[in-house]
Amino acid sequence: NIITRNFAFSGLTLTHSLVAPVGGIDGGLGQANINITNGFVTGGEITLANQSIAEVGVFTLNAGPADDYLGVSDADIPLSRSVNVGRFYPDHFRLLSSTLDNACVAGNFSYMGQPLSLEYIVQAENLAGAITQNYDDDSLGWTPTATLSYQAENNNDGVERNIANRFTVNTLDWNQGVVAVSDPVASFLRK
């Protein structure tokens, strides 16, 4: 299509449609309509610097339709759809809660290899801090999703040590933007 450099329209509707993951939700679109004026258009193109989608996934972005352009009843502009945009991921992850109970409650310690009780909840969030429900490898099959690693300190010395290969925990599944682990037999293994 040829770019129409002098096009102007007030209240052009913007929408979006989820392409993947199949079965997910669209989420909100930050800016739902725009006014296209001569000063807003550069070379027949428009850039929206503050547009956002509240969910993760792959989307199409849509503009229009626009009925009766310039007041002419048969001058309708059809819906315009983009190619697939994204694969958008969560902005950040938030640890909501965590508990690690020692095996020997009376002495407040555990031996290496002894079962520990570990529970935590992490959620995937968008920029506004809302859960991104499409971030789901359980029912929606959205892969790859984040894997969690485990760090430890020695007597609060401030030095993080990666213990991922020494810490055994039940399998993690993201479900609607949340991973919840409750493992009564987690274990910290010897080297």
Count of helical segments? 0
Estimated radius of gyration: 25 Å
| Proportion in helices | under 10%
Main sheet, how many strands, which sense, barrel? 5 strands, antiparallel
Total number of beta strands: 11
Report the mean per-residue pLDDT as an integer.
82
Basic shape: elongated
- Structural class given helices, strands, pairing? mainly beta
What is the terminal separation in angstroms? 64 Å
Q: Report the order of strands and helices.
A: EEEEEEEEEEE
Please indicate the percent range of residues in DSSP E strands (runs of 2 or more).
Answer: 35-45%
- Return residue spans where pLDDT drops below 50 for at least 5 consecutive residues: none
What's the short version?
This protein is mostly beta strands and 191 residues long. Helix content is 0%, strand content 35%. A hairpin with an 8-residue loop joins strand 8 and strand 9 (161-162).
Provide the fold topology.
Elements lengths: L8 E12 L12 E4 L20 E7 L16 E2 L3 E4 L3 E10 L13 E11 L25 E2 L8 E2 L4 E2 L9 E11 L3
Give an account of the 3D structure.
The protein has strands at residues 9-20, 33-36, 57-63, 80-81, 85-88, 92-101, 115-125, 151-152, 161-162, 167-168, 178-188. The chain is mainly β and 191 residues long. Strands 1, 2, 3, 4 and 5 form a 5-stranded antiparallel sheet that branches. The protein has a 4-stranded antiparallel sheet with strand order 6-7-11-10, with no helix packed on it. Strands 8-9 form a two-stranded antiparallel ribbon. The radius of gyration is 25 Å and the shape is elongated.
